[in-house]
Amino acid sequence: MTTVFVTLLLLVIGGFIAFAIYLQLKEQARIERLRKVALLNNQLRQERRFLDELPAQYQPKDMRLWLFSRILATCDELLAIQPDEPLARRRRFLQEEMVQFQSSKEKRRAKPVIDDVQILELKRLFDSFANYIHNAKTTKKIDQESAERYESLLMLYKYKVNADYHAYLARQSFLTHKMEEAVSEYQEAINQMRPIQEQPEAAEVIKKYEETIQEIEDDLELQRREAEMAAESQEDDEAEGELDDEWQKFMTDGEFQRKKHF
Fold first, then answer.
1. Rounded-to-integer distance, Cα 200 and Cα 185, Å
2. Which is nearest to 90 in space by CA: 74, 111, 101?
3. What is the rounded average pLDDT of the residues 141-145?
4. Which residue has the higher pLDDT, 259 or 60?
5. What are residue 111's phi and psi, to 5 degrees?
6. What spans are recorded as compositionally biased (Acidic residues) (predicted)?
7. Which of 68, 94, 109, 164 is least buried, going by the fewest C-beta atoms within 10 A?
8. Alpha helices in 139-199 (DSSP H)
9. Contact, 70 vs 141, CB < 8 A?
10. Distance between CA atoms of 116 and 122, rounded to whole angstroms?
């Protein structure tokens, strides 16, 4: 009797321990699932921020399409863990947006860089995106060639954003007919690109600014010549006017003398 009681007691205790372990494992799995959902939601917000806040001039079409694909993949991971109709609906809209963008031939409009605060925010975004690409490369979510290209572009953009700011100031000066200031700002834009001037993309930007400077200087030279010609023409007109006055005076005096003699 004692042996049976002990055996039953051991079975009850063993069952209780097994049940406690099961509950603990279940709770750990629940916590791990919640942790993974939180991480994926943070990743989804980060990816969406890159997609929405990187201006068009700093987001080539292939880079934007890759971001679309990463957001869709993150949505799929979330839906596999935790089915959610609002998220599924957002994913469908995103898929449609991606297909529409992929087939569109319309060039996205660049966003001007207008102040130092915007420059600082964009540089932080470039750094964050560079880290994201590095992690994606580590986890095999992007091929090596694309990762290296995007990292190179982000390095370029960290310089170009300063150049774009001075180019914006130059355009504002040009529109208000402050040509000398416009030339000075375009020259500063070129200076911002000098550290990476060996890169083909940077060399192309520098060439464009140099051509713009040359156009403005040619226009200024033309204006100077026209002003000189106008001044010379005015001097000639004044000299001719003085001769006419002297001739008129001579004729008047001569007529007076003739009348007096008669």
1. 22
2. 74
3. 93
4. 60
5. -105, 120
6. 233-245
7. 109
8. 144-175, 179-193
9. yes
10. 10
Q: How far apart are CA 159 and CA 143, in angstroms?
A: 25
CB-based contact 25:63 (threshold 8 Å):
no
Q: What is the pLDDT of residue 261?
A: 37
Average pLDDT of every residue of the chain: 84
User: Is 241 inside any structural domain?
Assistant: no
In a domain, 204, yes or no: yes
List the one residue out of 231, 67, 211, 207 whose CA is nearest residue 150. Answer: 67
| Single-letter amino acid code for the residue at 189 | A
Residue 240 within a domain: no
| Chain position carrying tokens 């001075």 | 166
Domain membership flag for residue 234: no
pTM beyond 0.90, yes or no: no
Provide the strand spans (E) within the chain. Answer: none
What the block records as the tokens of 178 is 């402050």
Tell me which amino acid residue 182 is: A
Two tokens, residue 195: 């550290």
pLDDT, residue 114, reads: 92
How far is it, in rounded angstroms, from Cα 157 to Cα 193? Answer: 10
* DSSP conformation letters of 44-89: HHHHHHHHHHS-GGGS-HHHHHHHHHHHHHHHHHHHHHS--HHHHH
Measured CA to CA in angstroms, residue 224 lies from 177, 184, 217, 230 at distances of 14, 19, 10, 10
Instruction: With H, G, I as helix, E, B as strand and everything else as coil, classify residue 239.
Output: helix
How many domains in the chain? 2
Task: Report the residue count for the chain.
Answer: 262
